[in-house]
Design a protein that fits this description.
The protein is α+β, with helices and mostly antiparallel strands. It has four helices and 18 strands. The protein has two domains: 147 residues, Diaminopimelate Epimerase, Chain A, domain 1, CATH 3.10.310; 165 residues, Diaminopimelate Epimerase, Chain A, domain 1 (Roll), CATH 3.10.310. The chain is globular, with a radius of gyration of 19 Å. GO terms for molecular function: 4-hydroxyproline epimerase activity; proline racemase activity. Belongs to the proline racemase family.
Length: 335
C-alpha cells in the first residue's frame, strides 16, 4: 500500500482529556522564537493539525503536541500545542500527558525518583518534574508561566440571564472565570450543553466589550476559554470547575492553565497567599493541585508563578496515514 503521509503518535489522557503526541511525520519547523515556529507550522502545515485533530481521526475536544527543537538553551524540547480550535500558547493537561508519554515510551530516559524535563512553549520556558517509579510516571508537576488577572468583575449581560460578573485572567491562555451559581448552572456532565451555550455567549459579550491583549505576547489576543466554578463534590477538592474550550467543548481535566488563572484570581483577591495551595476538581472527578510559588510581573500586571501537579495515563500508540485520494484527508467537524 502507498500512503502520502504517515504520522506516528503516542496517545494519552489527563483526567479523561486526550493528548496526541506526534513523534514523527512533521517536517522541521523554522523560527527564532517558539511563536515563530507556531506561525511557520500554521502557515504551511495546518492541514496536519486538522487531519489529526478533526474527525475521523480525532473529535471535538482532541488536542495534541507537535515536537520541535527548542529555542532556549535551558530547554530540552520544544512543543507546539494544537487542538480542534487552533493553537494554544500553553496547555497544562497536554504538558502532563506529553511528559508522561515521552518518559513511559522511552523517548526520554527515566530517572527515578524524579525525571526533570524543561519544555520550550510558545508562552515561555516551563520546567517539569515527573515522579517515576519502576518506569511508570505517577505524577507530573510543572511550573507554569506567570499568571495574572487582566481585569476583575467585568459585567456582561447574557440573553436569558441577569447581569453577571466575569474575572478575566491569564494562566497560559485567557480565561473568563464565572461562578456557576450566578448562571444557575450545575457542574455535571448532564449540563454540559447548557454550559457550552452560556460560555459561547459570555465569550462573545466580553470580547465585544473590551480588548484583551497579552502585554508581552501581542499575537495573543481575545478571551478564548470560559471557566465555570463552584462547590466541589470530591472529598479532596477545594473547588470544582467546568472549562469550555473553543470552539465549544468541555475540558475533561481540571485544566492546568485554567487552574493557574484561578490561582491568580484567588491571590489577587487576597484569598490565597504565596506558598498556599488548593485542589481543583473537573467534571470527571479528576484532580489537579495548584501551589503559588512566587510573585512575578508581566508587563504592568502583578503576577504569580504557579506549580500544577496532576497525572496522565498512556493508552496507546498509533500510526495515522493519509491516502492521496482521500477526499476527507484533512479532516472535518460535525456539531
Amino acid at each position: 500500500m502507498e500512503f502520502d503521509q504517515v504520522f506516528r503518535t503516542i496517545e494519552s489522557h489527563t483526567g479523561g482529556n486526550p493528548t496526541r503526541t506526534i513523534l514523527s511525520g512533521v517536517p522541521r519547523l523554522k523560527g527564532q522564537t517558539m511563536m515563530d515556529k507556531v506561525e511557520y507550522f500554521r502557515s504551511r502545515y495546518d492541514w496536519i493539525r486538522t487531519a489529526l485533530m478533526f474527525e475521523p481521526r480525532g473529535h471535538g475536544v482532541m488536542s495534541g503536541c507537535v515536537l520541535t527543537e527548542p529555542v532556549h538553551a535551558e530547554a530540552d524540547i520544544g512543543v507546539i500545542y494544537i487542538e480542534v480550535g487552533g493553537y494554544l500558547p500553553m496547555c497544562g493537561h497536554d504538558t502532563i500527558g506529553l511528559v508522561t508519554a515521552l518518559i513511559e515510551s522511552g523517548q526520554i530516559p527515566a530517572q527515578e525518583p524524579v525525571t526533570s524535563v524543561v519544555l520550550d512553549t510558545p508562552s515561555g520556558v516551563v520546567p517539569t518534574q515527573a515522579e517515576v517509579k519502576q518506569g511508570r510516571v505517577l505524577s507530573v508537576s510543572f511550573d507554569n508561566v506567570p499568571a495574572f488577572v487582566f481585569r476583575r468583575d467585568v459585567r456582561v449581560r447574557v440573553p436569558g440571564l441577569h447581569e453577571i460578573s466575569v474575572d478575566v485572567a491569564w494562566g497560559g491562555n485567557f480565561y473568563g472565570l464565572v461562578s456557576a451559581a450566578q448562571c444557575g448552572l450545575e457542574l455535571t456532565p448532564d449540563h454540559a450543553r447548557q454550559a457550552i451555550r452560556l460560555a459561547q455567549a459570555i465569550r462573545q459579550q466580553v470580547n465585544e466589550g473590551m480588548e484583551i491583549v497579552h502585554p508581552e505576547l501581542p499575537a495573543v489576543r481575545g478571551l478564548t476559554h470560559i471557566e465555570f466554578y463552584g462547590e466541589p463534590t470530591h472529598e479532596k477538592a477545594d473547588v470544582k470547575n467546568m472549562v469550555i474550550v473553543p470552539p465549544g467543548g468541555v475540558d475533561r481535566s481540571p485544566c492546568g492553565t485554567g487552574t493557574s488563572a484561578k490561582a491568580a484570581v484567588l491571590w489577587d483577591r487576597g484569598e490565597l497567599d504565596v506558598g498556599g495551595s488548593f485542589v481543583h476538581e473537573s467534571v470527571t472527578g479528576a484532580l489537579f493541585t495548584a501551589q503559588i510559588l512566587n510573585p512575578a510581573q508581566v508587563g504592568s500586571f502583578p503576577a504569580v508563578r504557579v506549580r500544577i501537579t496532576g497525572s496522565a495515563q498512556v493508552y496507546g500508540e498509533s500510526t495515522f496515514v493519509l491516502e492521496p485520494d482521500d477526499p476527507l484527508r484533512a479532516g472535518f467537524l460535525l456539531p
